[in-house]
Write a structure and sequence with these properties.
It contains 25 helices and no strands. The protein has 519 residues and is mainly alpha-helical. The radius of gyration is 24 Å and the shape is globular. This is ABC-2 type transport system permease protein.
């Protein structure tokens, strides 16, 4: 066993160096939402959180599905009320862990770096062990930052440590689950997708169990419930944290056991064989890009549609929140919809950036060279990827707005909300078109620079949610600050045209630059 771990430390240091920017962005980016959400609650609930909880009593079942179980609300404080945001932190920690383990295991095998590394003296289990240690270190740092944030909003020392540890432990569970899925799947996308499906199943199971009651036994079947079951502040217990760590260790052990049954670069589940001859429509670069991205777009469509339906179903409850004017404006329902429209557009922006990042993967894997070896031109190849990304982005925005509007209409009986929701979300497409243009331009100049598009995106998110007190000139630097927040604010043609022209111009220039660059 000792020989199987030779080189683990070296690979761990390599992983820390490669992710020296990614890991701080993940951990700090998640932890800063502790004071943000708490300040939002202070604004909406004011000095009487119990009244705010009582106002939501009619929507309690829906809230349990969305955020439950939540304990201690019969004597509500802002700190107890804040725990209703647990699921957002749990999802972020789980996704971070899934992406980390996939990137440093199956991702390394797909890129060919794993094969290169194994030419040195590296034990068979060293890569997986280094990836899991990296996930453990990252979640430990996240636990510390979340605990500090909880201390800052009034948690006691022990409660803050329990709160941060319970979320990080859930992240470890999904790191362990991913250690297993990367042995089963033949590609990083499939392995991440399998872990993502299990995350969705765990979340749905938690919601279904929470709707049956705060003490329903089925809550113990979902790892997404265990952090809530630690009951910080009301009745703190470390048992669920120990359960999470044990579960993570069990899945990691299963991953080790399965890893010795497969070859490097292959999965235990053989990929489905394709047809002997491809259909004629696959002969174009657009068809190839669409086929490559179709499953990703499908999963995003399901997720965004469900998210829109869940968020939209809360519009009726928002309308009765006392003091909500400070956060949503005079018209609570319209203000809530406009805020969610911005949030959903930013989430779709994540799809746009990850979709465009595939062109870099196509180039580094050598598939671009194979494509350009045919009659396909550089412009048509890159243009096809941009077109598929832009069409997918537009479709996701439309589906998100439709889900939000339909659920809001059903919850309130006001059909006028449907048009406002669809317009408020779809109307932000020019912002994402500009983001796609920036990503394409950076790739055309140098593939290694494409990641800088995330800086543009992150700056826009920070300015949108935290930058209201900054000078207007600083806010205007963000591409997400120019289109009005519909339906609260009226439509303005100028920003829509300017951002659309900028996005198209960036894509056009990028195509010309890419044609002249060596690939």
């Amino acid at each position: 066993m000792r020989d199987a771990l030779v080189g683990t430390g070296l690979l761990l240091r390599l992983g820390l160096r490669r992710d020296r920017l990614r890991l701080p962005l993940w951990t700090v980016g998640i932890a800063v939402f502790v004071p943000f959400f708490f300040n939002a609650l202070e604004t909406t609930a004011g000095d009487d959180p119990q009244q705010a909880v009582d106002d939501l009593a009619e929507a309690r079942t829906m809230l349990d599905i969305f955020a439950g179980p939540v304990y201690g609300l019969e004597t509500a404080t802002l700190q107890k009320y804040f725990l209703m945001y647990n699921q957002e932190f749990l999802l972020a920690a789980a996704l971070m862990s899934i992406l980390l383990v996939v990137r440093h295991t199956r991702g390394e095998e797909q890129s060919g770096r794993a094969e290169l590394v194994r030419t040195a003296v590296i034990g068979r289990h060293a890569p997986l062990t280094a990836a899991l240690l990296l996930a453990a270190i990252t979640n430990t740092v996240l636990a510390g930052l979340l605990s500090l944030g909880a201390l800052g909003i009034g948690f006691g020392g022990g409660d803050a440590a329990l709160y941060g540890s319970s979320i990080a432990a859930t992240g470890l569970v999904f790191a362990g689950i991913t250690a297993t899925t990367v042995q089963l799947a033949a590609s990083g996308r499939t392995a991440g997708g399998m872990a993502g499906v299990l995350l969705a199943v765990a979340s749905i199971g938690r919601g279904a169990a929470a709707a049956q009651g705060d003490d329903h036994p089925a809550l113990w079947l979902s790892p997404m419930s265990w952090a809530n079951l630690t009951k910080p502040i009301t009745d703190p217990t470390w048992g669920p944290v120990l359960l999470s760590v044990t579960t993570a260790a069990a899945f990691a052990s299963l991953g080790y056991a399965l890893s010795v049954r497969r070859d490097v670069g292959r999965g235990l589940l053989a990929p489905r064989r394709g047809r002997v001859e491809a259909s004629r429509w696959l002969s174009s670069p657009f068809a190839l890009a669409l086929r490559t991205q179709r499953r990703t777009i499908l999963w995003w469509a399901v997720a965004m549609g469900m998210l829109g339906l869940v968020w939209g179903s809360l519009v009726g409850a928002i309308g009765s929140v006392d003091g909500g004017e400070a956060m949503f404006g005079d018209d609570l329902e319209q203000g809530y919809i406009s805020l969610l429209g911005v949030t959903q557009a930013l989430l779709v922006g994540v799809f746009a950036l990850t979709s465009m990042a595939r062109v870099t993967a196509e180039e580094t894997s050598g598939r671009l060279e194979a494509a350009l070896g045919t009659a396909t031109s550089r412009i048509s190849w890159l243009g096809s990827w941009v077109l598929v990304t832009a069409l997918g982005t537009a479709a996701l925005l439309l589906l998100s707005g439709w889900g939000l509007g339909v659920a809001a209409t059903a919850a309130t009986g006001d059909p006028s909300l449907l048009g406002g929701a669809v317009g408020g979300v779809v109307g932000r497409f020019p912002e994402l078109l500009a983001l796609i243009g920036i990503s394409t331009m950076l790739y055309a100049l140098r593939p290694a620079w494409q990641g800088l598009a995330w800086v543009v995106f992150g700056y826009g998110v920070i300015i949108r949610f935290f930058g209201s007190s900054l000078p207007e000139a600083v806010q205007k630097l963000s591409i997400f600050q120019h289109i009005p927040r519909m339906p609260v604010e009226g439509f303005s043609l100028g920003p829509v045209v300017a951002l659309s022209v900028a996005g198209i111009a960036l894509v056009g220039t990028a195509l010309v630059v890419f044609r002249r660059r060596d690939a």
